[in-house]
Structures are given as C-alpha cells and as structure tokens.
C-alpha cells in the first residue's frame, strides 16, 4: 500500500469515527425535546450519549479489522484505544455528576433498593466502567495475569454497554419517536454484531484453520523458537515484520491468545516461526510444547514492515533483546528476495552470550547488504564492539552522512524505544520515517 493511499484511508476512518461518535448527539438534537427539562439536564444527556457512542466504538478498535489498522499500525490503534478510553470514562461519569450537582435530589437514584430500574441499569453501567478502567490501569499493581485481565476486561465492557442501553430505553425520552427507536435498534445491532464477530465468529474461523507444532528450538537469551505449519489448509501470507496472535493449549474461545512477531521469512509461508523469550508468564511454557500439538493463529497484523515503504533507499533497524524477532523476519525475507538495499542493524543486548540469533545474523551479512553493529551493555574481556546503550554517537559512528531516504525501525524494551525515538528526533529524522512496534496492550 503506497503512502498516499494509506493517508487517504486513514483520513476516511477518522471521518467515519467522528460521524459514528456524533450520530447519537445529532439524534438527541433533532426532533422535539421533552418538556420541563433545563439546559444542564440536556447537557448531561449529551455528554452521556457522546460517551456511550465512544464506548461502543471501542469494540471496533479492538475487533482487529485489518483494513482499519492498516493506515496507522496496531500500535497507534491500541494507543488510541487506551487514551480515548480515559476520555470516554470521564464523559460518561460527567453525565450523572452534572445531574447530581444541578439537581441534588437525584442522588436518591444511587440507592439500588429504591431506585427505578432505569437508574439501576445506569448505576450498573457506571460501576462496570469503573471496574473496566481500574483493572486496566492497575493490572500490574493488582498482579492480575494477562489472560484473566482479558476475560474481566471483556465482561466489564459488555456489562457497561448493556447497562447503558437499558438505561436509555428505560428513560425513554429520546427513543419514543419511531425513527429514533429504529436508530437505537440499529446502533445496538451494530454493537452486538461486533461482539459476535469478536467472540464467536473469529474464534470459530480459527478453529477451522488450526496449525500444528513442527518443532521447538532453544535459542540464546533464554528464548525458544516455535515453528508451526498449517493443518490441512493453505496458511497465511504476511509481510516481514508483522505479528500474529497465537493460542496454545486452549481453544480460541477461551481468551488465552498472545501477540508475537513472526520471525520467519515472508517468502516461505508454508512454515511460520515465532521466537519467544521466557518472561515468566505464558512464555515459560513454550519450551515444553511438543511437535504435533495444535496451535490457533489470528493474523497477520501490523504495519511494521519494509513492504510499506517501497520507496525507501535503505533501512536502519534498532533492536533491543528479543525485539530482534521482526527484524529477523525482515532480514530473512530480504535474503530470499535478493533485496539489494542497504540495512544498518544496531542490536543492543546486556551480555554477548545472550545475543539471540547471533550466529545467523552474522552469517546474513555475507548474503545481503547488511552492516551489523552489536551494542553490549556489559561486555566480556576482549569484546571490541560498541558498548553501553544505543546512543546518538553510536548511530553517527556507523551511519552514512547522507541519511535521506532511509526508514528507521525500532523494537525492544519500552525504555530503549523511548530513548531511541528521542535520539532520532534529535537527529532531525522526520517522524513519518520512524516506525515502532510495541505489544503493551494494558
């Protein structure tokens, strides 16, 4: 996809998002208003409707529609999802707070025993939303494992949405007119369809297109490479640098999938490999997997790929630790394609002995136009390469003076990525030429 097409597609999705967000507000403003309701009550309703629409669109952002993520990349979409969730939370919370400030007598609606059902549903929605945001913001402090968090995240989201819809239907002031009722029925059907797609249809499709483990190979750096192949189907085509969600030891309906970069060559899709570092959670089970076990895959996703930048004269890769995996896919693909463009790979690790793919990356130097620069934080005696961290000076030591036309890719630990982005910004690299890959979802 060329840059102009991605830009136009990105603008189109933004326009559609804004229209869907504001649609309930337009419905509120069109037609007769209920009698005896002052400005502040109507203003609070407007806040609630806008927040509700944004909450519903969160299901779109997490439904993994490839055409939606293509213009921006998965990182940007998930970042927007997290940030807009906070805005949505305060918009919806502002709805009852505005009512209580302007009409204190309405505080009685917080009593779930005496309040009418419309108020109870509203309270259920607000409490679910608080749980949703709280569990996401404080997941690590609460030591909630990723798999359980995903289940609770989905339950809170659906409960908040359903409670809000029943609250609107119970109030009935804005759905009494037939065409408005039809609008809300259609809007509700849209949200329900998204949930069905995400929770039922997609898992069912994954069940029908399973994979089998071919082998599990130990790697340097406390990592292991999981190699899989399609189980009686054609598999997928992907771009180097993309990732997929994989489910091992469960079925796709159980919310136990995890995102990993594909490490194998895009020119050899008959087998896929994922190199996974043992981080003490699900990842510590990878070395114990056996050939023949079933694996389910959802992908590919992401725009962290040189294929999105056909115009580039060359590439600069900044990798930290296991962040080498998308670059391995890229290097292997460039080798298989005989791609002549130059590549500078700055590969940072703590210790020389833990450099994953050390021997293979070294060998690839003779197969493509690759300049490999290791950066070791704690070097052994006799090590003669760059030490410490990837700094501006390290980059200047190895990059050509003319870096126009180069695309910069960064993948690794979050602190390393932030530092690298700051360095490239200081080097006056255009933000559009800097690309990152982060799997921090909550």
What pattern of helices and strands is seen along the backbone?
HHHHHHHEEEEEEEHEHEEHEHE
Total beta-strand segments: 12
Structural class: alpha/beta
Tally of individual domains: 3
What's the helical proportion of residues?
Answer: 40-55%
Question: How would you summarize the topology of this molecule?
Answer:
Blueprint: H1 3-29, H2 39-61, H3 66-69, H4 74-102, H5 117-137, H6 146-171, H7 178-208, E1 211-219, E2 223-230, E3 243-248, E4 257-261, E5 272-277, E6 294-301, E7 314-320, H8 325-337, E8 343-349, H9 358-364, E9 370-376, E10 386-387, H10 392-398, E11 406-411, H11 414-426, E12 434-437
Parallel strand pairs: 7-8, 7-11, 8-9, 9-10, 11-12
Antiparallel strand pairs: 1-2, 1-6, 2-5, 3-4, 3-6
Helix pairs in contact: 1-2, 2-4, 4-5, 5-6
Written overview of the protein:
- There is one protein chain.
- With 442 residues, the chain is of the alpha/beta class.
- The protein folds into 3 domains: 3-206; 209-301, Elongation Factor Tu (Ef-tu), domain 3; 309-437, 3-Layer(aba) Sandwich (Rossmann fold), CATH 3.40.50.
- 45% of the residues lie in helices and 17% in strands.
- The protein has helices at residues 3-29, 39-61, 66-69, 74-102, 117-137, 146-171, 178-208, 325-337, 358-364, 392-398, 414-426; strands spanning 211-219, 223-230, 243-248, 257-261, 272-277, 294-301, 314-320, 343-349, 370-376, 386-387, 406-411, 434-437.
- It has a 6-stranded antiparallel sheet with strand order 4-3-6-1-2-5. A 6-stranded parallel sheet has the order 10-9-8-7-11-12, with helices on both faces.
- Helix 4 (74-102) packs across helix 5 (117-137).
- The longest helix has 31 residues, at 178-208.
């Amino acid at each position: 996809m060329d840059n102009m097409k991605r830009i136009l597609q990105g603008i189109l999705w933004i326009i559609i998002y804004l229209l869907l967000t504001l649609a309930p507000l337009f419905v509120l403003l069109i037609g007769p208003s209920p009698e005896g309701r002052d400005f502040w009550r109507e203003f609070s309703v407007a806040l609630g409707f806008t927040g509700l629409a944004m909450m519903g669109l969160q299901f779109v952002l997490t439904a993994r529609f490839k055409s939606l993520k293509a213009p921006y990349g998965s990182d940007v979409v998930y970042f927007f999802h997290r940030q807009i969730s906070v805005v949505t939370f305060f918009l919806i919370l502002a709805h009852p707070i505005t009512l209580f400030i302007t009409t204190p007598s309405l505080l009685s609606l917080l009593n779930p025993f005496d309040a009418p059902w419309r108020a109870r549903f509203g309270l259920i929605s607000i409490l679910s939303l608080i749980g949703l945001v709280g569990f996401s913001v404080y997941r690590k402090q609460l030591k909630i494992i990723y798999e359980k968090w995903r289940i609770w995240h989905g339950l809170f989201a659906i409960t908040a949405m359903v409670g809000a819809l029943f609250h609107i239907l119970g109030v009935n002031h804005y759905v009494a007119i037939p065409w408005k009722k039809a609008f809300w029925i259609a809007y509700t059907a849209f949200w329900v369809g998204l949930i069905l797609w995400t929770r039922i249809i997609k898992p069912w499709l994954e069940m029908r297109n399973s994979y089998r483990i071919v082998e599990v190979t130990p790697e340097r750096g406390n990592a292991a490479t999981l190699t899989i192949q399609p189980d009686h189907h054609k598999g997928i085509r992907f771009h180097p640098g993309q990732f997929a969600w994989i489910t091992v030891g469960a079925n796709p309906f159980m919310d136990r999938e995890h995102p990993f970069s594909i490490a194998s060559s895009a020119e050899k899709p008959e087998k896929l490999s994922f190199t996974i570092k043992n981080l003490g959670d699900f990842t510590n089970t990878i070395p114990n997997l056996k050939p023949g076990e079933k694996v389910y895959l959802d992908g590919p996703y992401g725009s962290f790929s040189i294929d999105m930048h056909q115009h580039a004269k060359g590439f600069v890769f900044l990798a930290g630790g296991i962040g080498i995996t998308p670059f391995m896919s890229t290097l292997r693909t460039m080798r298989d394609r005989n791609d002549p463009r130059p590549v500078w790979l700055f590969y940072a690790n703590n210790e020389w002995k833990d450099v994953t793919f050390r021997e293979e990356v070294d060998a690839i130097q003779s197969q493509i136009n690759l300049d490999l620069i290791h950066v070791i934080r704690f070097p052994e005696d006799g090590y003669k390469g760059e030490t410490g961290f990837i700094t501006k000076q390290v980059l200047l030591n190895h990059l050509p003076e003319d870096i126009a036309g180069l695309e910069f890719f960064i993948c690794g630990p979050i602190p390393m990525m932030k530092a690298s982005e700051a360095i490239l910004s200081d080097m006056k690299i255009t933000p559009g030429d800097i690309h990152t890959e982060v799997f921090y979802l909550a």
